Every structure is written in C-alpha cells, then in structure tokens.
Amino acid sequence: MSRRKADAERTREAILDAAETTFLAQGVSRTTLAHIAEAAGVTRGAIYWHFEDKAAVFDALLERVRIPLDEIVDETIERIGTTPALCLRDIAQRLLSAICHDLPLQRAITIVLHRCEKLEDEHPRICMITQLPKHAEAQVEQLFEQAQVAGNLRADLTPASARRQFHGFLIGVCFDWLQDPQQYALANERDAIVETLMRGLLNQPNP
C-alpha cells in the first residue's frame, strides 16, 4: 500500500472512531458532521472525501463490526451434532459472550439499541445487528423443529414462534444490560440467563 493510501485509510478510520465516540455520547440524530470532524481533528471536507453524508458514516461504522452469527451456528451444529437443546444453549451462550467481550461490537450495539432515535430506527443497516441473518435464522428454526420431533419443544409453541422468542429474549437481555453494563456482570450471569431461556422454550427431562 502506498503512503498516500495508508494515510487516507488512517484518516477514514479516525473519522469512524470519532463518529462512534460522538454517536455514543449524544445520539445519532444530534451528531453532525461538524461534531465528527472536530472529534477526529479533520475538516468536514476530509469527511466528504470518504463519505457522502452522515448516513454513509453510520453505514461504515456498522460494517466494521459484525457478529459472526452464521459461523457460530454452523460451528456449534458441527461440533455438538444431533442434540438440538445443547446446540441452542451453546449458540445463546456464545452470542452473550460476544456482547460481553467484544468491545467494538458492544459499542456498536449500544449505538443501535440506545442511541438511534425513533425516526432512525428503520435505517437498513440496523438489521445487521438486531436481526438474525437468514442462514442463521433457518438453522435455529431447524433446531427447534428437531426438538419438536423429539418431543422436547413446548407443546404450545411452533418452531417459528420458538425461534422468534429465542431471538427476542437475547435482544432483550442485551438491551437491558447495555443501558448500564456496570449494573451487573453479564459474563457471570450468562449461563443462568441462558438456562432461563431454555426452560421457557423446551420441555425439561424428568429427574
């Protein structure tokens, strides 16, 4: 990479770092390109060199951060095999662990869940974090289908409704915890939280 390209890439990353900081501090709507430029120590012209507008900055910020949901689901199924309850438990545990320990991901999800005002909730990039990718969604629903065939899915649930509740519960935990990560250690309570989730969706074996 040439020195000029390397400098341009550093400037771009500095702009995104500054956008993350200002979005977290004051929300997406209340942040202007002038705020981002001041925080990054660059001119607004430098921002326009890299990004068309604030929405493009927001897009790029979320693209930097990715939950590898497809990989988590596929690896879990490959490793654990044909026990759907164990697979679902492991997927939930790994997702909450990612929120606890991946700080860039944690900051991005905080912006999406707590710093995007109502008018911006329909931004297409938000689904990158708040929704399951189609592949992971299908795999999770298939696990619930297998649980149903085995007689382990709660009788009043369909695999599709179980998948929606599985996802909604985990998003709710993240929403609550990210309001104030100091309120409790999510990493310490992760297993108990996941156990509560699983007991709500699956029949428990007789002792």
From TrEMBL:
Keywords: DNA-binding, Repressor, Transcription, Transcription regulation. SUPFAM superfamilies: Homeodomain-like, Tetracyclin repressor-like, C-terminal domain. Residues 9-69 form the HTH tetR-type domain. PROSITE patterns: HTH_TETR_1, HTH_TETR_2. Pfam families: TetR_C_2, TetR_N. Residues 32-51 bind DNA. This is TetR family transcriptional regulator.
